[in-house]
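Ops channel
N.P.: pipeline sanity check, posting one input/output pair.
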């Protein structure tokens, strides 16, 4: 088993269900907030195992990543970046490097879970999502589980931001998914085909 909090939250099963029957193109995946990289390892060895996907991971500090990722790093199929979601210039530098490989098929924001961090990340990476690609923001309902946490309280405003910008941002599908048990929530956005 890989080390990821997505088992405890149930999100790993959500992604399995979401993508298990998806036969569309998946060539490049970005996860923001990788922790030790266990979910990227899961994606590569289980969910997207026959697709030869290139992965990108961003976290505020890259340390103690899962040793099983070393082969992906060696093969240049995984590129890791240390960046702070509050530092737009750092995110833009990551985006510029990623963009050299092409547009992203999937972005998963499991980072700092604050309004400013989510908006900075969305504004930086949504333009890099290809037509028909996916953008996920995890834990948008965390404020319900942790009402005293000021960072999580701001996540409700992320929902408002997404809804306020839905028409102008080219959303094809938009879902706010909330499962009280296990406790997970995710905003799932699919980009329009132009």
């Amino acid at each position: 088993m890989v080390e990821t909090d997505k088992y405890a939250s149930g999100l790993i099963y959500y992604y399995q269900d979401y993508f298990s029957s998806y036969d569309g193109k998946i060539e490049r995946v970005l996860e923001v907030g990788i922790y030790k990289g266990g979910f990227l390892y899961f994606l590569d060895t289980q969910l997207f195992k026959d697709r030869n996907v290139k992965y990108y991971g961003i976290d505020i500090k890259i340390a103690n990543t899962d040793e099983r990722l070393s082969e992906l790093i060696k093969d240049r199929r995984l590129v890791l970046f240390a960046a702070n979601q509050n530092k737009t210039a750092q995110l833009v530098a990551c985006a510029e490097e990623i963009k050299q490989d092409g547009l992203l098929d999937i972005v998963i924001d499991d980072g700092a879970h604050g309004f400013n961090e989510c908006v900075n990340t969305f504004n930086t990476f949504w333009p890099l999502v290809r037509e028909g690609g996916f953008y996920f923001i995890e834990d948008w309902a965390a404020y319900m589980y942790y009402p005293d946490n000021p960072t999580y309280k701001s996540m409700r405003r992320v929902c408002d931001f997404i809804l306020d910008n839905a028409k102008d941002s080219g959303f094809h599908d938009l879902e706010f998914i909330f499962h009280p048990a296990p406790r997970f929530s995710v905003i799932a956005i699919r980009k329009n085909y132009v």
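N.P.: looks fine end to end. The CA atoms of residues 20 and 161 lie 30 Å apart.
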